[in-house]
């Protein structure tokens, strides 16, 4: 399963959010899984159309994801995913 | 007299309590988060806060224990298929002919919250960018887009169903540009205390609309409005109300601080008349407040024209009329009279009983306890103030 690291800022809203392994073969599946475990999580990183919010970044390894609209980027079991706030929103 | 003021600021929510004649702020809540609006529901005392988080999107927060603890609740979301006709910021050079394009709506900002009366317990309205009115009928647990207003003929008709069937008259507001889109916004929602099915909304930039049947049908209420920026100043649409409010004790008396002056209505917004007095600098500005009982009494904090948007003459003052706008008195005692560049946003002035309070973008908050005649500073170092509401 991919390993996921979160910006600590998300713990303000989801205090039990912890770094670790979460299932998902695409970024979309991963976000859906995080929504199941932490209800409301998806509305923080994506808008109501499912797009990544403008000032949120998701990296797979060191590369930002390509598909910010549908989150279709594939994830491999050993990928390290980072869900971070973008510097642009600060 | 109210003993509590709620401030929505660029960096959090501030609650000020009046104790022993002093207004004392509590430690900031929602620290670091931009708060677009904060108000208390008079029906049950719940404090509602609209957060405007740059990273994580607009969110609502509420407190049922007078600000001791806060809960994040189900969020407002535009339904799938809620589209609007895309508009474009004016660009230098010749006007470009563009095809009509549509955009899927996403919530950019909750701009204002309004509470229905005791005849509709649990009903709360939220005015948003990009121009949707949302209503909750269960105390904020769930929210629904008001489709008749979203699908109004002044916006192109039912875009859920297909392409536009009428011309769009709702223009973008510059207040939306920070969100990366040029879209309209609903910043004023007014519920008639006689009948909660009677609601007005004000839209930048379109004008005022009214429903008398609980949101099933809407019509424009802009007769008498004057838009100095249009070839036909009496056009039905295209107006830029900055804030609209109603006298609760005389609900047919409405007041409007518009981009093009101060307007008032004595007939429930059927007609408006301009009551600006530019000779005493009462013309441009953002907020307006009306007395709770006397519909002839209103307050404004003017700004100098839309070319500067600053305190006229760098000397802060509040203007009050007690005769329906025929004359205005200006009050300066207790307010800085030099080097003051404050601007007061549309939700950052409120009146309750003999108390009037306003906060500015430079983080200054002033209160008057004698109906605006003399003022006292209750803080100079607050974050930029977005909203001021007596609780």
Structure commentary:
The complex is a heterodimer of chains A (90) and B (391). Chain A has helices spanning 27-37, 41-45; strands at residues 3-6, 20-21, 56-60, 63-64, 80-85. By secondary structure, chain A is an alpha+beta fold. Chain A has a single domain, classed as Ubiquitin-like (UB roll) (Roll), CATH 3.10.20.30. A 5-stranded mixed beta sheet of chain A has the order 2-1-5-3-4, with no helix packed on it. The longest helix of chain A has 11 residues, at 27-37. Chain B has 2 helices and 30 strands. Chain B starts with a strand and ends with a strand. In chain B, strand 10 and strand 11 form a beta hairpin. By secondary structure, chain B is mainly beta. The interface between A and B is medium-sized, with 19 and 14 residues.
SSE blueprint and pairings:
The complex is a heterodimer of chains A (90) and B (391).
Chain A: E1 3-6, E2 20-21, H1 27-37, H2 41-45, E3 56-60, E4 63-64, E5 80-85
Parallel strand pairs in A: 1-5
Antiparallel strand pairs in A: 1-2, 3-4, 3-5
Chain B: E1 4-9, E2 12-19, E3 22-25, E4 35-40, E5 47-53, E6 57-63, E7 71-72, E8 83-85, E9 102-104, E10 109-115, E11 124-129, E12 133-136, E13 144-145, H1 147-150, E14 185-192, E15 195-204, E16 207-211, E17 219-220, E18 241-247, E19 250-258, E20 261-265, E21 273-274, E22 285-290, E23 298-302, H2 305-308, E24 318-321, E25 329-331, E26 349-352, E27 355-359, E28 365-368, E29 376-379, E30 385-390
Antiparallel strand pairs in B: 1-2, 1-30, 2-3, 4-5, 5-6, 6-7, 8-9, 10-11, 11-12, 12-13, 14-15, 15-16, 16-17, 18-19, 19-20, 20-21, 22-23, 23-24, 24-25, 26-27, 27-28, 28-29
Name some characteristics of this structure.
A: 90 residues, alpha+beta, Ubiquitin-like (UB roll), 5-stranded mixed β-sheet, B: 391 residues, Methylamine Dehydrogenase, Chain H, 4-stranded antiparallel β-sheet
